[in-house]
Each structure stands twice: as structure tokens, then as C-alpha cells.
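Sequence in, structure out.
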Amino acid sequence: MNIGSNKGAMSNINITPYIDILLVLLIIFMVITPVKQMDLDVKVPQTSQDNDKGAIDPNVIVVSIGESAKIAINNEETTIGQLGSKLQDIYSKRANKNMFVSASPKLAYSDVVRVIDIAKGAGVGDIGLLTEEVH
């Protein structure tokens, strides 16, 4: 008798190694994916029903950045090197830690972010960005 003659080509594929590889890749991608994205918190301003354009709070601090990267704190010119110390002096005595940044549209984004970074390091809490109205 010839018992071993029924052996032919095996029609089933063993997928166990493929599932193991898939699970290892899944674990690797889960580990390297950051849990929390680092970003800036943005608060969208609410529209005001008051049309009092003349009533500006004198305690508001606005840092202006001109086209040639000239910096001014409430229209008082300063340099990028002195900005941190001046903001620290201003905000060390204040309870309100809010500030606004007004920048020229022709300015590079990195210049605006540098000013925001210096302001955060000087103790400023919330920073608002001022834009020009397009007519």
C-alpha cells in the first residue's frame, strides 16, 4: 500500500507570521505618534455691539512691528534686545497680563513668533493679534 501518495500541493496559506508583523508595526506606530500636539492656544474675539471707537483703555499694551522689523511698545520705539526686559518691567507691576501684537502684513511670520516668544518669556499671559480691516 502506498499511503503517502495523496500528498499534493498545500492550498492553505499560513498568515500567522503576517499578523505578527502587522501587530509589531501597529505598536511601533502607536509609540512614535505624539500624544499631545504642541501649539498655541487661540481665542477668537467676539464681536462687540458697542461702537465706541474712541473709548480705548489706556492700560492696554500694544507691541507694533513695522515693515523693517522696527518694534514699538505703545508707540515707544525699542529694539528686539530690549523688548524682553521692558515687557518684564511693565508686567511685573500689573495684574492684567494681556498684550496685543500689531504687525505689518509684509513681515515674515518668524519675526512675529519671535516677539510672541519673548513676550511669553517676560511673563505676558494672553496675547492677541491685531489685524487691519480690509475694505
